[in-house]
Design a protein that fits this description.
It contains 24 helices and 20 strands. The relative contact order is 0.10. Strands 1, 2, 5, 6, 9, 10, 13, 14, 17, 19 and 20 form an 11-stranded mixed beta sheet that branches. Strands 7-8-18 form a 3-stranded mixed beta sheet. The chain has a two-stranded antiparallel ribbon with strand order 3-4. The chain has 3 domains: about 5-295 and about 435-545, no CATH class; about 310-430, no CATH class; about 570-664, no CATH class. About 50% of the residues lie in helices and about 15% in strands.
Length: about 675
């Protein structure tokens, strides 16, 4: 049993150890969730006040921000509004232990795979740090950094793959027994007290000085809540213009508790601050919206990807030379053999047991193969097929695929297509290789001076971290913008009618001055000074779907806005037509009244026509008793009707004009 000394790491600076991986897991707390707790949207000056009141945060700032500012233009309006904040932990970090299950099972291609490489369940010591990073809009992200040393063995490669599965467990499904409650299916979260039924979430255990063998996400939740309960009250006091660290010797005025009621720290739950969404690869599972990065400091793996040039060579060998088909046909063939062996199970079961791992470690190149490949692959070290295992692992890991032993050469080549370098110029000057999948940024280096500095403060390379954290913020900002856009579309579709058109226009105005303006204002553009980091950032933004969402959503809003304007123009045209018709009719009847008036004046008898009687009886009704002719009576009738029609039309037009005025 491996003995691990848990607790604070020794004071001082830690050397950057070779053959280590630095894993940073990042959680995002958006500004609206913070507002629900604080009562206001936090601003950069609030975070800055908290930073200035903490020696640990100032030490973190002084060490890291010069490196951030070296590679990126982070200034806005004369100052930097992204703030680093230390968590409630010493700078040197602490040592924890993580233990994986001895056997892992996943399902793919219609078969259940069961892998148990010797040593997988050995507890592994990990260096652990955590800190906060605030963003332009007042949102904040929480980062947990782990470092673990490893060997190039199947057990360690599967352990590293499981770390990624702890945050994004695709290829795993929920155990039926754990997916039901009272006979009904229910969604699960990894922070729930009950099991999720997903093996990496339930069986990866963490031990520290406080708790032994806690589930991984329970460990994350406990640390997050402790750090949030230290940060939020300070942030709230800064937002109310108070001292971040109140002086206990001075009692606050009696009215302060009414203006600023105390926070209920017990209400600061992980689930309150961190958004959970359905994890689409595993139905019935909800995961915190987390992104992560891995930074491999490993000369051997780096040289597999970027082989050193042989004497006299000017270009590196292409991946098609490094991963040749004949070297990899045996691995899928062996899996097929195991599938046939397990056909009696339903679904078929592939047992990658001791016999399989003995076969793998005993696999050798023939002398002919080795001599031929050695000529084109200077990085080959011996006749054992360690380089094939390395390529299989890296290809699977970069795409978050735990079934990495079941690949052929073409799959390995495709999966090892980096986001940097991508051309000959970059290849010549590159000292790192970077890959990206929808949730992770993965870097391989031979050595890194910036990692030597960053390791002691944030537990990773600060250059890679800044790319990662900017892409993280952009992705979540785009998700919020997407939700606001679809809410706008639903509202406008309901309001796009003649009577509610003004409300639709108001809704567009609020959207354009609210979510749309904030998205443009708070989104990180390509802030990086150098092509290397800038190219990776743009590739990561594209891989995460931020660019696609941006273009798609703007198209939706513009289309809906155009349709609303067209509807408004059509309704306005129809209204104008009705008004013009009414005015025309009014003019016609006015002209008719004028004609009758003229005819009345110029009657043949030269007499002044009789007027209506006082009691309102029309003269033509007593034409027989009248001295006037029938023509006179008809004239009076025409005058009466035209006056009535004219008055009615004038009243109708006035009503329309008043109604249109009130709708403005």
């Amino acid at each position: 049993m491996t003995t691990i000394s848990l607790g604070q790491m020794p004071k001082g600076y830690q050397a950057n150890e070779p053959q280590s991986v630095y894993w940073t897991l990042s959680l995002y707390v958006d500004r609206d969730n913070l507002k629900d707790v604080l009562g206001f949207h936090p601003e950069p000056e609030h975070y800055r006040a908290v930073q200035m009141a903490s020696n640990d945060s100032l030490e973190l700032r002084n060490a890291m921000e010069p490196l951030f500012n070296d590679i990126a233009d982070r200034e806005r309006e004369g100052q930097v509004d992204d703030i680093l904040l230390a968590a409630s932990t010493p700078r040197q970090g602490e040592t924890i232990a993580i233990t994986a299950p001895g056997q892992i099972e996943w399902e793919t291609e219609g078969s259940v795979f069961c892998a148990s490489p010797p040593g997988l369940d050995t507890p592994r010591a990990m260096d652990f740090r955590r800190f906060w990073y605030s963003h332009l809009d007042g949102a904040v992200s929480y980062h947990l950094s782990f470092r673990v040393a490893y060997e190039h063995t199947p057990a360690d490669f599967y352990f590293l793959s499981l770390l990624q599965k702890a945050a994004a467990p695709k290829e795993f499904s929920r155990n039926n027994a754990d997916s039901l409650e009272n006979g009904k299916a229910r969604s699960r979260r990894p922070t729930d007290a009950r099991l999720t039924g997903v093996q990496p979430l339930d069986e990866i255990l963490v031990s520290d000085t406080d708790v032994e063998d806690a589930r991984f996400w329970h460990f994350v939740k406990r640390r997050f809540e402790a750090d949030a309960r230290a940060l939020i009250p300070r942030l709230r006091r800064a937002g109310h213009g108070q001292s971040v660290e109140p002086d206990p010797s001075h009692a606050p005025p009696f009215w302060e508790k009414y203006l600023n009621p105390p926070l209920n720290l017990e209400s600061l739950q992980f689930e309150t601050l961190v958004v959970h969404n359905p994890f689409i690869e595993v139905p019935g599972l909800e995961m915190p919206l987390a992104r992560f990065m891995f930074f491999f400091n490993d000369e051997t793996l780096f040289e597999r990807l970027m082989p050193p040039l042989a004497e006299g060579e000017t270009t590196r060998a292409p991946r098609s030379v490094m991963c040749q088909e004949r070297c990899y046909v045996r691995y899928p063939a062996k899996i097929e053999e195991l599938v046939e062996k397990g056909r009696h199970h339903n679904p078929p079961r592939v047992d990658m047991d001791k016999d399989y791992w003995d076969w793998l470690t005993g696999d050798k190149y023939t002398d002919e193969e080795f001599n031929r490949l050695k000529a084109t692959r200077p990085a080959m070290q011996d006749k054992a097929r360690t380089d094939c295992l390395h390529y299989l692992f890296m290809a699977g890991f970069c795409q978050n695929i735990i079934d990495f032993m079941n690949q052929d050469a073409s799959e390995v080549q495709d999966s090892l297509d980096p986001v940097y370098p991508t051309n000959d110029r970059q290849d010549e000057e590159s000292f790192f290789v970077r890959f990206a999948n929808p949730r992770a940024l993965v870097t391989f280096v031979k050595r890194s001076r910036s990692l030597d500095t960053g390791n002691d403060y944030i537990g990773t390379c600060p250059y890679a971290f800044l790319i990662h954290v900017a892409a993280l913020h952009n992705e979540y900002l785009a998700r919020q913008y997407e939700m606001s856009t679809f809410s706008l579309i639903k509202d406008v579709q309901k309001l796009n009618s003649k009577r509610r058109l003004k409300k639709a226009a108001d809704r567009f105005y609020r959207f354009r001055t609210g979510p749309f303006a904030n998205y443009g204002r708070f989104r990180y553009r390509n802030i990086f000074r150098y092509d290397t980091e800038g190219d990776v950032f743009e590739a990561l933004d594209k891989r995460r779907g931020t660019v696609r969402r941006d273009e798609y959503l703007e198209g939706l809003v513009s289309s809906m806005e155009s349709q609303t304007r067209d509807l408004e123009a059509r309704i306005t045209k129809e209204d104008e037509g009705r008004v013009n018709f009414a005015l025309g009719a009014l003019g016609f009847f006015g002209l008719l009244q004028l004609v009758f008036s003229v005819a009345d004046i110029f009657t043949p008898s030269g007499e002044t026509p009789a007027r209506f009687t006082v009691d309102g009886v029309l003269p033509f009704l007593h034409a027989a008793q009248s001295d006037h002719t029938l023509g006179d009576q008809l004239t009076y009738l025409g005058l009466y009707l035209s006056a009535l029609a004219t008055g009615g039309l004038i009243l109708f037009v006035c009503v329309i004009l008043v109604f249109r005025f009130l709708r403005r």
